Amino acid sequence: MKNVFALVDCNNFYVSCERVFDPRLEGRPVIVMSNNDGCVVARSNEVKALGVGMGVPVFKVQEIIEKHGIEVFSSNYTLYGDMSRRVMETLAQFTPDMEIYSIDEAFLDLSGYPYRNLTEYGHEMRKRVKQWVGIPVTIGFGRSKTLAKMANHLAKQSAKAKGVLDLTDSPYLAEALRRTDVEKVWGIGSRYAKRLRKAGIETAWDLRNADDRWIRQEMGVVGLRTVHELRGIACYDLETAPAPNKGIASSRSFGRPVETLEEIRESVAAYTSRAAEKLRRQKLAAGVITVMVMTNRFDTKGPRYFNYQTMELPVATNDTGELIRYAVQAVEKIYRPGCRYKKAGVLLDGLVAQDKVQGNLFDDLDREKSAKLMRVLDAVNARTASDTLRYATAGLKQPWRTKFQKRSPRYTTRWDELLRVKVEKKVCTAYPTDYGLR
DNA sequence: TCTGGGGTCCTAGGACCC
DNA sequence: TCTGGGGTCCTAGGACCC
User: Fold this and answer.
1) Does residue A121 contact residue A115 with C-beta atoms inside 8 Å?
2) Cβ-based burial of A300 (10 A; exposed 0-12, middle 13-18, buried ≥19)
3) How far is A78 from A389, CA to CA, in rounded Å?
4) Nucleotide C18 C1' to residue A26 CA (A)
5) Gap from A370 CA to B9 C1', in Å?
6) What is the pLDDT of residue A383?
7) Whole-number pLDDT of residue A382
8) pTM score, two decimals?
9) Å separating the CA of residue A221 from the C1' of nucleotide C6
């Protein structure tokens, strides 16, 4: 039996999410920015056509933004996360063999399903996601994940494909490989692309026909797998049950430079709280904590500084208060006065299941009490959908907070931010589904 | 003035042990 | 002055992904 993989990818996902709730944006140029309103992380097709690159700093394209009246949004991860869930739930109806690969992508394993016409099936999926959730998607089919990715990419380029391209047994496969630049291949980043091009390998077709020994030498086993995948030999299976995290990180740039130990300490405490919440959501505990601080790496004047401190905990924990205590100790060791800090972060490692934590003879914390307290904390914050309860160390006003100056309402997860619909005397004909609500 | 955040896997080399 | 070999574990760094 031959493998059939599909890759479903939401088009310009963050932009599409904004458009679902603000149809005025349809057909207009739209940008969504990264954290701290720093970089461009999502662009509508209109913006791509204006030559605005992925990941460019917003201030560098300010002129284009103003000249073309581009609509600009801060990231609204709460909204995007919820919309993603809706898309995935809809896709799950088509097959049980699904891997949620990222917030806006899913692999489907359709091997062994007697679909006579994959293209038709793809159009059905597209239609349903659009109708139920309001998000446009593109679908590529291939004999390996890498080929499904490539098909998806080509489907986006071609208007003729109408969002679906099947390359499983296609007579156009060779042509498709020839038309794909080597850096567009999944697994080939800018470094490898440069080296490959130097060696005369410019397209996916060239890569597919490259010498195995040379590839193994230059790119290791990972590179070799990519080449095999391009030949239609599937090296990667679907990963339906996500492996538990190996580490959990929480780091943020500051909305403005931070200089005092007090503010750095607050931010580190706040980031530690976030990381600890993630930890508890996955029922894990951390045995190692690392705190890092850094100045602006683009700043040419002023002292540049980067440092981190790792601490091993006597007992693995997911208690916010306890983790904050270690984090604060760590940050006090690396804080250097006279620097303008741009970013701080917390990394948790040595993760173990919370019910398999090894005790310690000298442990003086009441673990049961701590677990109870954390449950209450999480429950209250879940009900109020914000960090209503938090540790005083994290500060009250948090003047260093990351910027989100143009965030749209969290339409689907906050009662006080629901979409407002003006109803005139006539009967309202808008149904919740029109807004992605169910 | 303004430049994101959170992950994964692989490999080479050093520490350590017998 | 002579000074083995093989295994494991850990870490840092480099590549990649969205």
Assistant:
1) yes
2) exposed
3) 19
4) 24
5) 35
6) 84
7) 86
8) 0.93
9) 25
